[in-house]
Design brief:
Elements: H1 8-16, H2 24-30, E1 35-46, E2 49-60, E3 64-68, H3 75-83, E4 87-95, E5 102-103, H4 109-114, E6 118-121, H5 133-139, H6 147-160, H7 162-165, H8 177-189, E7 195-199, H9 207-222, E8 227-231, H10 235-241, E9 244-249, E10 252-258, H11 259-264, H12 266-272
Parallel strand pairs: 3-8, 3-9, 6-7, 7-8
Antiparallel strand pairs: 1-2, 1-4, 4-5, 9-10
């Protein structure tokens, strides 16, 4: 028998009861006390509206973190704040190992990509449909000193993903959902970033393409050493993938644990995993 449906309002109310006042020690331990991305006491939002309230985060180099929670919890706002798309009212965002951490809080999005190695992979429909696959990749290198460098990077990506190479001269608008998502990920790789901010990678995809996308992201983490911070509406898939998982509720961190532990958490399962 399938689990009974829970209204959005009920999820919000019950999720608020999950809050366990996650300690900074717990956050640090999940990052193995060696954070590569650190957020401290962040208050951020849009215009004058504050969405995140004293939010803290730590993720180590080559780790993956998945953010889940009810609609409007502030999950995408975390990614937007890291990349520079929100107003920061207080707090700081740091990147780097140990005593080499750099404060990137006030850098522009271009500076975060070009200087700090932070790339943002947007939700679906961020490709340029009238441009070819190859031209879309070149656009990913718009901050590089010379166009030739973007072309060199594109060739390395085509070597890595032969299925994309076969479509290099096709307009991006004719790609399947899975091919389009691969192109979006690949375009972010042109700048060879260290950190990938991934917003809803499974949205709008058929199951076979969802598996493909998570396999690609897993390879980028394991083989290329990318640090991944993800928002994922398919909570089960996100928790299965991630080393660390946070549950956000009303702009605050309610629960933090390993992805495996949250998969086994009965309250998380009931509210976000369908039973």
């Amino acid at each position: 028998m399938s689990a009974p449906l829970i209204s959005v309002e009920s999820v919000q109310r019950e999720a608020e009861r999950l809050g366990n006042n996650v300690s900074k020690e717990k956050i640090a331990a999940l990052a193995k006390s060696a954070p590569y991305v650190t957020i401290r006491n962040l208050r951020a939002g849009y215009g004058k509206m504050e969405i995140l309230h004293d939010f803290n985060l730590q993720v180590g180099r080559s780790q993956s973190l998945c953010l889940i929670g009810p609609n409007g919890a502030g999950k995408s706002t975390v990614l937007h704040s890291i990349y520079g798309f929100t107003n920061i009212f207080s707090g700081e965002i740091l990147i780097g190992d140990g005593d080499r951490q750099r404060d990137i809080t006030k850098l522009s999005a271009n500076q975060k990509l070009g200087e700090a190695g932070v790339a943002y992979i947007l939700q679906d429909k961020s490709v340029f449909p009238g441009m070819t696959v190859e031209e879309n990749l070149w656009m990913g290198g718009y901050l590089l000193a010379k166009p030739a460098l973007a072309k060199e990077a594109a060739e390395k990506i085509f070597d890595r993903y032969p299925n994309l190479a076969k479509r290099r001269s096709k307009p991006a608008g004719v790609l399947s959902g899975g091919e389009r998502r691969l192109l979006e990920i690949s375009r972010a790789l042109v700048m060879d970033p260290d950190i990938l901010l991934v917003d809803e990678p499974s949205i709008g995809l058929e199951p076979r393409y969802i598996d493909m996308v998570f396999e690609i992201l897993g390879e980028l983490q394991r083989k290329d050493g990318k640090t991944i911070i993800m928002v994922e509406q398919n909570a089960k898939k996100g928790l299965e993938f991630a080393d660390i998982a946070y549950v956000l509720v009303a702009g605050r961190l309610a629960v933090a644990d390993t992805g495996d532990e949250l998969l086994e958490n009965p309250d998380v399962g009931r509210l976000f995993l369908g039973g």
